[in-house]
Automatic annotation (TrEMBL):
PANTHER family: ALDEHYDE DEHYDROGENASE-RELATED. This is Aldehyde dehydrogenase family protein. Keywords: Oxidoreductase. Pfam families: Aldedh (PF00171). It comes from Aquicoccus porphyridii. Signal peptide: none annotated. GO terms for molecular function: aldehyde dehydrogenase [NAD(P)+] activity. The active site is at 225. Residues 3-450 form the Aldehyde dehydrogenase domain. Belongs to the aldehyde dehydrogenase family.
Amino acid sequence: MDGAAFTTLERANAQDVDRAVAAARRAFDDGRWSRAAPAERKRVLHRIADIIEERALELTVLGVRDNGTEFNMALKAEAGSAAGTFRYYAEAVDKIYGEVAPTAEDVLGLVHREPVGVVGAIVPWNFPLMIGAWKLAPALATGNSVVLKPAETASLSLLKLAEYCMEAGLPDGVLNVVTGQGSVAGEALALSMDVDVLVFTGSGATGRRLLEYSARSNLKRVYLELGGKSPNVVFADAPDLEKAAAVSAMGIFRNSGQVCVAGSRLLVERSIHDDFVAALSRHAGALRVGDPLDLGSQVGAINSLDQLEGNLGFVADATAQGAEIALGGGRILESTGGYYMEPTVLTGVAPDNRVFREEVFGPVLAVTAFDGDEEAIALANATDYGLAAGVWTGNLGRAHRMVRGIRAGIVHVNTYGGSDNTVPLGGVKQSGNGHDKSLHAIDKYLDLKTAWIQL
Ligand code: NAD
């Protein structure tokens, strides 16, 4: 936010992680939470949600000072969403049933759904509370113990959340937080022989390592939520092009583009290309970028100097490869210090340009023109990723064809971004293999056990 040191954190080593995992295992095995009545677990999860709501302002300010997200967005997307997630899974706790199998009459086949045991959760810095809650709430709801490793540059709100969990009555040892470096604490957690399931949100490079760590240790299940290079496809027949331009600008520039589902590739039908880019650039250029704690700021800070330099490197490479800068392209020097960047629009981006293919995770939009549905789908799918997409059209048949044709975990139609706990979020291709949110997420935290009983 201002580039200055805010606090210091413990740098957990492998022994610290082992102690946390052992505490989680003890808590799981003695049943203090894993065998608590569902109604009791439900009560505690609701209480956690209550406390998050009561202290939402304090929690949000802490998180914003740590990671730089604009306050107005963080209040809703971090504290607000985390409380909602705890409530959603609190309500699910006592609605998870086993099955009676349709066997022959002399046998009873029961399918129990049991907590997996110790869950390792590793999360990124862009929305630590929201993403942390997506993992913690269903893991705890189903009776597991958890060891959580927050990101180096965004640990504080999750440490505070752990305090709230204890205050709400979550028994000791059920939730353990280890702060520190990914390459040390994260690696130790992923290599642990006593972690049963690893749930992760972050980059593809780290995701790959986690799969290796699993193979090298106890073959723990690994669920990955990775990055994206999500296409936002605008057709000339969109019902309201001005609205499409405004929403598409926010679809990439909120939280300075540090959003996994950011619509970072704009595909525009050639006949409206110039007008649409002009409208979007007008909206983007009017966004107030600055101090995330200033309520007038619509876009906050870049998380770190490394991240800012990476963003600027993408712009330099893109122009060297033939793209043109229609808006922004540079650093903003704020009087507060810290790292800020102009919303940046690059046009004429060819599919072989690095900025078309690789995730920037910053406020950089790559624009490419297309002709017709087929080319739109081909360009949309010309990526290793498959997290999110958007389609703007007034033609219902075309909307359905695009939803079917684009390989992504979520396709927004005539909007971009936005969803709630009732629907899953997850990717296909190299965007990941697991889903957060919705009742589907619960399966990650449960094992199936069959009882085969001769009558
Ligand atoms: P990252 O992979 O660098 O770090 C994520 C977490 O992994 C951090 O806690 C880090 O400490 C840890 N880590 C790093 N190296 C590790 C290792 N060797 N072993 C174990 N843990 C390790 O990612 P990031 O820069 O924090 O986050 C940005 C990425 O996250 C982007 O690619 C973004 O798209 C993705 N993301 C995805 C979603 C989603 O839901 N799909 C949501 C938000 C962010």
